Amino acid sequence: MIAREIRRLLDDGSAIRRMWTLGRKLKAAHGAENVADLTLGNPVLPPPPKVLETLGEIVAHPPPGLHRYTPNAGLPEVRERIAAHLHGTGLLPGAEGGHVVVTGGASAAVNVALRAVLDPGDEVVLLAPWFPDYPAHVMNHGGVPVPVSTGEDFLPDLEALYLAMGRKTRAVIVNHPNNPSGRQYPAGLLRKLADLLAERGRENGRPVYLISDEPYREIRYTADRFESPARFHEHGLMAYSFSKSLSLAGERIGYLAVQPACPDADELVRALSLANRILGFTNAPALWQHVVARCLGEVVDLAPYRSHRSRLLEALAGKGYEVLPPEGTFYLFPRTPGGDDEAFVRRAMERLLLLVPGGTFGRPGHLRLAFCTDEHTVDLAVERLPDARGD
Ligand SMILES: Cc1ncc(COP(=O)(O)O)c(C=O)c1O
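That is the input. Now the predicted structure with pyridoxal-5'-phosphate docked in place:
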């Protein structure tokens, strides 16, 4: 007998993983080369050459203790380098090594942050559409997810956000560029959003944390500067991952950084470090701590993403879909022709085209297409995409 909540989550299933599993079956039956699988944000691009070279050098000339436990917050020199990068790029001015906790990716970072700040029954506001694991991440720590819809343009609706925050609100999770909408939030809006959290925190007599989950901040297609929401809030926490920027999703490496202006930064970092240990992560993979610390300015080649994005946008427009061009990420989130996501996804599947229904992201009436795939798969998808006007 398993726990009731896990039973419910199993039964609900993540549509993404479900579609991915189905995709594997379809590939076994029809040949992988015949299935256009746009389900998972699991990049097929190789990591940048410098990452692989650095990995080779570290393995060939291992630093002392390479394979041992590291401190729970990460190796001091790695934390220092990450902080210097955050300060130097202006992403988090004033950051020092003591503000950084190295984690096993962004999902671990979000869980560590929630574990450190939530008391049972505390509420965490999630902006829809959201990364599908957020509600479970919140519940992992006795929290209550509170959904709030964004506007038609997928930008946060500040009035709705303010109304959703109450006495029990402990945190708001913000993710931009957003998975699945691709939307990058303007700096002015982020400042106002941070002000609202600060105001609510003052009214509540305890801070409302802003957890900024930003694994896509380097994967962008416009000239607009990326600003971390964590920068604008005294109680800001930045969750970052190298899964997407360096195509290292399987290696589980990322970090949390605490806003240097946070009055309780030291205690918070100690809490995060403890949470990293007691959640069972113990420490981020030591080998990859060494690698990423030497590759902080690196980003995967964005040219294939630009090309896939343009081709799919063109195909969607040509076939009558309504879609906002994503400013970042490697996802497209068009409206579902006819409005029935599940029916549409099934119809696409009959053509061996795999998509994810919008309900998975808390935003029904849409479809997600992940284009972190190869050119052949994009060719197939362009060919197989049903005409939105019916064909
Ligand atoms: C918004 C968002 N957060 C977190 C994650 C998980 O990232 P990681 O592999 O670093 O745990 C993803 C992965 O798709 C994501 O899209």
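The chain has two domains: 4-47+302-384, 49-293.
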